[in-house]
Fold this protein.
Amino acid sequence: MKKNKSILLGILIIVVVVFIAGCGFYNVVDKTEFKEHFGALGWTVTDTEQGKYESSSYSVATKSDMPFKIEHYEFENEVEAKKAYEKYKKAISEYITSDSKNKETTGAVFSKVVAISDKEYIIISRVKETLIFVAGTNEYAKQIDTLLEDIKY
C-alpha cells in the first residue's frame, strides 16, 4: 500500500511539473497551418508582402470587417525569432499613441507581450521559431484574444 502511494505521489509530481512548465501546451503554427486556419475563418492570407524583420516566411491575415491584421513570421531558428521578438517589444511605442500597460509572460519555448493603452491593444507572441504580431484596438481585444487562443499563441 505504501509503495502504491509513493508511485502515485511521484506521478502527481511529474504531472504538476509538466503543467507548470507548460510542456506540450504550445503549438507551433507554420505558414501552411496559419494560412489554412485563418483562411477557414474567412480571413485573406497573403505571403507576398515584406515583413518588418528578416524571416524565412512572412504571412499576413486580413479581413475586411476587422481594422487589424495578423502578422505571422517563421524564422530559421529560435534565436532569430527571439531577436525579432525583442525588436518588436522595443518598438512598441511606434504603435501606441499613449502610455500603455505592458504585461510580459515568458517560458522555455514562448514569450508574449500584451500592451494595452487608451486606444490600442497589441500582442507580440513567440512560440519557438515563430512569431505573431497583432496591432489592434481595445474594441477588438476579445476577438484578438480568441483568435490567438485558438492557435495556442
